[in-house]
Amino acid sequence: MSIKVEDYYPRATFQKMKAFADQQETPFVVIDKQTIADSYDQLVSCFPFAKIYYAVKANPATEITELLRDKGSNFDIASIYELDKVMKAGVSADRISYGNTIKKARDIRYFYEKGVRLFATDSEADLRNIAKAAPGSKIYVRILTEGSNSADWPLSRKFGCNPDMALDLLILAKQLKLEPYGISFHVGSQQRDIDVWDAAIAKVKVIFERLKEEDGITLKMINMGGGFPANYIAKTNDLQTYAEEITRFLKEDFGDELPEIILEPGRSLIANAGILVSEVVLVARKSRTAVERWVYTDVGKFSGLIETMDESIKFPIWTEKKGEMEEVIIAGPTCDSADIMYENYKYGLPLNLSSGDRLYWFSTGAYTTSYSAVEFNGFPPLKAYYI
């Protein structure tokens, strides 16, 4: 496997990032802000009818929040800590939704006191907490969707409820003097099968119609979550193709008068903007006759690469070393046997790779710094630079 830089970054962008990276001590991630700005503009161009709510959990850096704030983005928030950070950056409450369905009653109250009025839910207990702590707020119910088989990072089972329960919750929301506002779903992160949006939107249409006809409740919004892919090893369609197909699905079900549409991108906005740089610590074999080499780097699952768990996300890895390639096992530096990134999926790296050489992990702007451990084995969190 040989990675070509031009398949992932414009040459000038890569040269700028590498020139900066060459002056830093590993491990770290360097993120190009212009790439994020361009990704945001492309998303707005592809979905001109939608409101963008950036999923802050993907990368909560103030540099990114400020950039997207100035671009006009809204923000999907998962905790009071994210809320404080985003509001400190000057984002007003009317541009925020509390998208986590698992939340404490006192945290709901905190959001409400800060001015937030848009809340996700998927259970009766949570809905009743919202009614008490955030009276009169807008509610959208997250439903279960299928698509885990085609998403590299599935988000099913833990979040969402059956459509029949969603109906019950929205009826209850009205009874509790909340505003039944809409439905949300998430087809899974790094979703490669566009058709799963079609099935999800069809479920939403049924809920909209049943509530209006049977209960006199008119929903106003569909939150389609995230799921658009980043540029990893497995090829995907481009964003324009996703947008054209999803727009067609929406119009087939809702006609030209679409409800309010919300998108919550995280990975697709910022993953491609990042390069994680690590150093080879050791290259070793387990026996005299072992076929495979083990390549140990100074970054691993606990320092930003947790999405290699079960080898779900396959990051492109590039090195300046050239020559004959050989399959390797790639592992991190910690004293934990789980800290192996790739063993079953066969990465090829040059035979002459040795201690001190650098590995460049492409498309690592999302879910690296935010997943990095604070001090596992004493290693500090992953450093990040925004240029």
TrEMBL record:
Enzyme class: lyase
One record GO biological process: putrescine biosynthetic process from arginine, via ornithine
UniProt pathway: Amine and polyamine biosynthesis; putrescine biosynthesis via L-ornithine pathway; putrescine from L-ornithine: step 1/1
Pfam families xref list: Orn_Arg_deC_N
Matching InterPro entries: Ala_racemase/Decarboxylase_C (IPR009006), De-COase2_CS (IPR022657), De-COase2_N (IPR022644), De-COase2_pyr-phos_BS (IPR022653), Orn/DAP/Arg_de-COase (IPR000183), Orn_de-COase (IPR002433), PLP-binding_barrel (IPR029066)
Keyword Lyase: yes
Gene Ontology terms for molecular function: ornithine decarboxylase activity
EC number, UniProt record: 4.1.1.17
CDD domains cross-referenced by the UniProt entry: PLPDE_III_ODC
Alphabetical UniProt keywords: Lyase, Pyridoxal phosphate
List of residues that carry N6-(pyridoxal phosphate)lysine: K57
GO cellular component: cytoplasm
PANTHER family tied to this protein: ARGININE/DIAMINOPIMELATE/ORNITHINE DECARBOXYLASE, ORNITHINE DECARBOXYLASE 1-RELATED
Name of the protein in its database record: ornithine decarboxylase
